[in-house]
Input
Amino acid sequence: MTISEAHFAFISELARERAAIVLKPGKEYLVVSRLEPLARTSGFDSLDTFVDEMRRELGFGRLQRMAVEALTTNETLFFRDLHPFEAIEQKLIPEIMARRASERRIDIWSGASSTGQEAYSIAMLLREKFPELCSWKVNIIGTDLSGKAVEKARSGIYSQLEVNRGLPLPLLFKCFDKLGDDWQIKPDLKKMVEFRQMNLIEPWQGLPRFDLVMMRNVLIYFDLPTRKKILDGIQKVIHPEGALFLGASETTLNVVDCWQVENCGRTLVYRVQGRSSVKPAVSP
Ligand SMILES: C[S@@+](CC[C@H](N)C(=O)[O-])C[C@H]1O[C@@H](n2cnc3c(N)ncnc32)[C@H](O)[C@@H]1O
Output
């Protein structure tokens, strides 16, 4: 199965305009592999007829929304890359707790949270390692463009295969209930996390000031101006002393200069440039 040049151009423009996702020529296989099954399950006899119908929609119609959603890559796992979670445990949470001791409140954002594993990993870490936070207001917000991913995250239900990826067995037994063949996060942990559908390229509304922002493995899909806009935007929703994590292959270098990179254990953390207690900068 292939896709015509004109249809590929239409789909890549749709993905760019609605989600800032860049699909350069050469990514035809990705479009076909994601949209072909969607076309079939939506009752179309081919990808061509599906795209034709999409092109007839006025504005950002139902089929176009479905297509954009199907073009997102929702790959994620519990405690992904591990080192950021070690840094959160060993340095950042103790630091935040000292700083916010009078308000007794912590705000954390898992931006591009996909199906929720990152946000729940943080909830489990806080519950396990910082039991004293039980009397604090801990607010973990997960946001993602994909309605389907957000729905799954809200359910907190994961297959055996999904819990096998990154979740230590003792945590599985302690933090999840068995639900048929699947596992569901326990209600007290679920209550710590709120998931919202949110497009990073649209205005960010109703967000608190965050102590910690995880914006991992999503900037890679965007062009330079969009990365810049998002990295600038995070400065407006993060406490001056807050910390930002990016994905292992992502950086602020050569994108914006308002972030300062700092070694934090075996990972890198980004801090607002010029904050009061700056540490020496290092190159990643
Ligand atoms: C590869 S996953 C990363 C998940 C998680 N942050 C991690 O590192 O494991 C990328 C996520 O970015 C989301 N995404 C892509 N474009 C987006 C946009 N414009 N606004 C919000 N989320 C977006 C996708 O839906 C997908 O769930």
